[in-house]
């Protein structure tokens, strides 16, 4: 048989294999983006599925995989935080807890690898993948509204019936919460925000804000029907307001301001600069942002019950804390005071262990000791992503995390696409804010979403489409 025939036959088989794997991986990305707001169990299965396909591709075409790792250093750098957590096990006393925690952080290693191997899929289908993510959040939001619009007893009956049905089908009630389909109904009113039947309410508010920012980019890219995306944006924004997650609300608002600044810069700044001068144009923008950032929150506070109740509760908590009257009340679930005490104890740990931290598995133990010494009955919570990283794995881990964030925004900036840069910067601003009041990426849903967005935005080139 002629050698050229053999080589040609092998090439065809190789191409067929790559095509088949690519199609299966495409389905995996769709499943992952849809399941993020709906089911952490299905999201986990999707990641394992994509990882297997990616390993096959990496072993079959190792040179291409290595080239991708070198070509996208900002995406590859995400894995460094996983290795920092792994190194933090060396001086951890509670090794088993440390191993469990590091396992939960596997997204920092696995997601960038999956995206790098399948970068061509991301390049071809990113707007479609984001529309899947937005659509899943929209479905989630619709179910939010349905459960909270119906009478409480009826919603409770629906949730219980679905729970019993799922329990009958899968045989174990414990899997319901892991799969994330319908959690037991707990909300009795809209006082503090909507009940989330799939994932924890605060995480749900973060995902809705990310979906809203993604809608902005798809509108700017003229992907699909603009009027439909505007309708989706209105519904997601309304759900965010009613949901009651203050971090997601404020973070989403600040990130939306990035889009307003970009719109002004690209469409109005040149015009006003010629009419009134550059400095006055900038002053006009700043004045508009100041007015908007005061009038809009005040209007919402006065007219949206869930917002008024949540923020009034926060102001009251801060007042009784600074007046040292909080111990007269059952303050265990006062999240405002809880955050202040968490920041205080985080900083105390950092002062004691500034270089290497307490270790990946000893954070909760170290925090609990400080709560006990203060005689507080708060549950241990991190409530600050940067302080958490510094306290657990030291100043080196913090620099790694700051470095990967810097690498991400530089990568987005050098892609030289105004709306894509705006999108990437708005995502970063959103995360920078919520990381001041929460540690969202130490949990599965949070770190999977964070790594997914940083990775897919890092490899996508808007100038090629």
Describe this structure in words.
- The protein has 465 residues and is mainly alpha-helical.
- 78% of the residues lie in helices and 0% in strands.
- The protein has a domain at 268-329.
- It has helices at 3-35, 40-60, 62-71, 73-76, 79-87, 95-104, 107-117, 119-149, 152-170, 174-179, 201-220, 226-243, 246-267, 269-276, 278-303, 305-322, 335-352, 363-374, 385-413, 418-437, 444-459.
- The longest helix has 33 residues, at 3-35.
- The protein starts with a helix and ends in a 6-residue tail after the last helix.
- The model has no long low-confidence stretch (mean pLDDT 87).
Question: Which terms summarize this structure?
Answer:
single chain, 465 residues, mainly alpha
Biggest sheet statistics: none
Shape: globular
State the secondary-structure class.
Answer: mainly alpha
How do the helices and strands follow one another from N- to C-terminus? Answer: HHHHHHHHHHHHHHHHHHHHH
In DSSP terms (H or I, runs of 4 or more residues), the helix count works out at 21
Radius of gyration: 24 Å
Tell me briefly what this model is.
The chain is an all-alpha fold. It has helices at 3-35, 40-60, 62-71, 73-76, 79-87, 95-104, 107-117, 119-149, 152-170, 174-179, 201-220, 226-243, 246-267, 269-276, 278-303, 305-322, 335-352, 363-374, 385-413, 418-437, 444-459. The chain starts with a helix and ends in a 6-residue tail after the last helix.
């Amino acid at each position: 048989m002629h050698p050229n025939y053999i080589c040609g036959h092998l090439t065809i088989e190789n191409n067929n294999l790559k095509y088949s794997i690519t199609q299966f991986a495409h389905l995996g990305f769709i499943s992952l983006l849809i399941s993020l707001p709906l089911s952490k169990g299905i999201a986990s299965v999707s990641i394992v599925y994509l990882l297997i396909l990616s390993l096959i591709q990496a072993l079959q075409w190792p040179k291409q995989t290595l080239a991708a790792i070198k070509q996208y250093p900002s995406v590859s750098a995400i894995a460094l935080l996983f290795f920092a957590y792994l190194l933090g096990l060396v001086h951890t006393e509670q090794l088993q807890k440390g191993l469990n925690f590091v396992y939960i952080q596997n997204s920092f290693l696995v997601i960038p690898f999956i995206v790098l191997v399948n970068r061509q899929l991301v390049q071809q289908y990113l707007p479609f993948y984001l529309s899947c993510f937005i659509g899943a959040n929209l479905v989630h939001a619709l179910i939010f509204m349905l459960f909270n619009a119906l009478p409480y007893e009826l919603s409770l009956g629906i949730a219980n019936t679905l729970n019993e049905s799922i329990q009958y089908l899968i045989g174990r009630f414990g899997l319901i919460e892991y799969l994330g389909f319908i959690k037991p109904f707990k909300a009795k009113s809209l006082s503090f925000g909507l009940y989330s039947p799939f994932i924890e309410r605060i995480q749900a508010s973060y995902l809705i804000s990310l979906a809203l920012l993604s809608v902005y980019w798809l509108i700017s890219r003229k992907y699909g029907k603009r009027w439909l995306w505007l309708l989706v944006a209105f519904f997601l924004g309304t759900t965010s307001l009613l949901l009651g997650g203050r971090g997601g609300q404020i973070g989403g608002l600040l990130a939306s301001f990035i889009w307003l600044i970009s719109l002004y810069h690209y469409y109005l700044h040149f015009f006003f600069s010629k009419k009134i001068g550059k400095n006055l144009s900038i002053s006009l923008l700043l004045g508009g942002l100041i007015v908007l950032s005061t009038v809009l929150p005040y209007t919402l506070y006065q007219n949206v019950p869930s917002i008024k109740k949540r923020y009034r509760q926060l102001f009251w908590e801060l007042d009784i804390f600074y007046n040292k009257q909080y111990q007269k009340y059952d303050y265990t679930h006062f999240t405002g005071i809880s955050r202040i005490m968490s920041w205080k104890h985080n900083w105390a740990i950092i002062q004691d262990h500034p270089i290497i931290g307490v270790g990946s598995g000893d954070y909760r133990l170290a925090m609990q000791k400080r709560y006990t010494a203060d005689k507080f009955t708060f549950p241990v919570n991190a409530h600050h992503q940067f302080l958490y990283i510094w306290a657990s794995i030291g100043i080196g881990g913090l620099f790694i995390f700051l470095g990967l964030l810097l690498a991400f925004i530089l990568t987005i900036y050098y892609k030289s696409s105004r709306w894509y840069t705006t999108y990437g910067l708005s995502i970063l601003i959103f995360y920078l804010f919520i990381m001041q009041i929460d540690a969202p990426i130490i949990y599965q849903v949070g770190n999977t979403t964070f790594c997914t967005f940083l990775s897919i935005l890092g490899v996508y080139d808007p100038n090629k489409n």
